[in-house]
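User
Take a look at the entry that follows and flag anything odd:
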Amino acid sequence: QVHLVESGGGLVQAGGSVRLSCAASGLTFRWHAMGWFRQAPGKQREFVSSIGWGAGSAYYADSVKGRFTTSRDNAKNTVYLQMNSLKPEDTAVYYCAAAQSTFSSGSYSESDFGSWGQGTQVTVSS
């Protein structure tokens, strides 16, 4: 069974930085694209970023492009989301997800991800 555990969330001031980590188990990590999604209070969950299998390319939502960076360490079965220049509108619960299929590139669609973490709260104060 796939198990994803996010960490690194917390309270940060606007303009600050946070790095989220997602440790994966129960899958051949390097074979799966990974994604980050977020859900703000009263809003639907939305795509933030994803990264393809292996040493795949990363993709970003327009709202975070240039501020967030996704990377992966296949030796540690971990994917990271480095968030810089944070804004109050980045406040949300951030979820890590693993693609259902193997050997896929990053995806923007929730339906392509079959396993989800429990989420970690990021709060950006103004």
Residues 95 and 119 are 4 Å apart (CA to CA). The longest strand covers residues 18-25. The chain has a mean pLDDT of 96. The two ends are 40 Å apart (CA to CA).
